[in-house]
Structures are given as structure tokens and as C-alpha cells.
Design goal:
The chain has helices spanning about 10-15, 20-25, 35-50, 65-75; strands at about 60, 90-95, 100, 110-120, 125-135, 145-150, 155-165. The chain contains four helices and seven strands, in the order αααβαββββββ. By secondary structure, it is of the alpha+beta class.
Length: about 170
């Protein structure tokens, strides 16, 4: 298998919905292997961000579209969507082929970051993100988050996240 090497700009776009502002800082911790709950969070934030300029707080999506998204980013076919989260955001089954993503518009203070390196080791890829401004969060500036991906069937599947950040105990 020949790996198609991509640059930082490609991974900036590819990992966009895992980044602090789009994911409400939800993927800034150590993840050894993505659980169904974390995959569900990704699906939620992906579709929220696809529709963040809309007046609505819901988005209907086909199960086929969700399956393609999960396959592209996680390389898996069998997963379970968690329905009716019981809060202000979640996923609801409309019928056998359609879901509704719903959320409550809120604000938060996202970290500022910059992707700093892409390192290839065969079909494995390591993308490093440096926190450049921690603002009013518990993270210190210059902390790093490392995304581990594997090239698979033309996609870069996210396998884990390594957190090498420091917490600001004074925040």
C-alpha cells in the first residue's frame, strides 16, 4: 500500500472538527482507542459545525451519510449511535434511515492552537498540535496534543490522541 503523504494544511482541514473551537475542547485528553461515546461526540460536533450558521438547532441526516463519516475518520463499519442523550444535545432516530442531531447554542472559550508537525512512519502518521493561547482555560500555553492516524483505504483513520499538556492549577 502506498501512503499518500499530505502536509500540515491538509491535516488542518482533515482534523478540523477535532480542534478545540469546533469540538468545544472535547478531544483534548488522552484517548487510547475511540469508544462509541467518543465517536458519537465527534458525529455530534461534526454536524453542529456543518450547521453553526443556521438559525436552527437541529439537523437531519441519513444513516448512510453517518456511516460514511465514521468509516472515513475511524475506519469502522459497526458502531452504535447513542440516541436521546437526555440533555440539551444529542442524536435522535427519526426512522430506520434518518437521524436528527440536536443541540443548544452555548458559548465557551476555545483554545488557540497551531498544527506544528506531521511525521510519517510507514502507514502511521503523527500530527502534533501546540496550544498557543490557553486563555481562560485550565491548559498552559505551549502544551501539545498529538493525533495518531493510520492510512487505510485512501483515508487517514484516527486511532488515538496523546495529550502532553500541562494544566494550569491557578486557572
Amino acid at each position: 500500500m502506498i501512503v499518500k503523504c499530505k502536509d500540515l494544511a491538509y491535516f488542518e482541514e482533515y482534523l478540523y472538527y477535532f480542534m478545540p473551537e469546533q469540538s468545544v475542547n472535547n478531544f483534548l485528553y488522552k484517548i487510547d482507542s475511540f469508544s462509541e461515546e467518543e465517536i458519537n461526540k465527534y458525529i455530534l460536533f461534526y454536524y453542529i459545525n456543518q450547521n453553526k450558521d443556521s438559525e436552527r438547532s437541529t439537523y437531519n441526516v441519513s444513516s448512510e451519510e453517518v456511516s460514511k463519516l465514521v468509516s472515513k475518520y475511524f475506519g469502522i463499519e459497526n458502531y452504535k449511535l447513542k440516541e436521546d442523550w437526555g440533555g440539551r444535545e444529542g442524536i435522535k432516530r427519526l426512522d430506520d434511515k434518518h437521524y436528527q442531531i440536536y443541540w443548544f447554542q452555548t458559548g465557551w472559550y476555545p483554545l488557540e492552537y497551531k498544527l506544528t508537525s506531521v511525521v510519517y512512519d510507514g502507514k502511521n502518521v503523527k500530527v502534533t498540535m501546540k496550544i498557543t493561547d490557553a486563555g481562560m482555560t485550565i491548559f498552559k500555553e505551549n502544551s501539545e496534543i498529538v493525533f495518531h492516524l493510520v492510512y487505510n483505504n485512501g483515508n487517514y483513520n484516527l486511532k488515538s490522541i496523546e495529550s502532553a499538556y500541562e494544566l494550569d492549577v491557578n486557572a
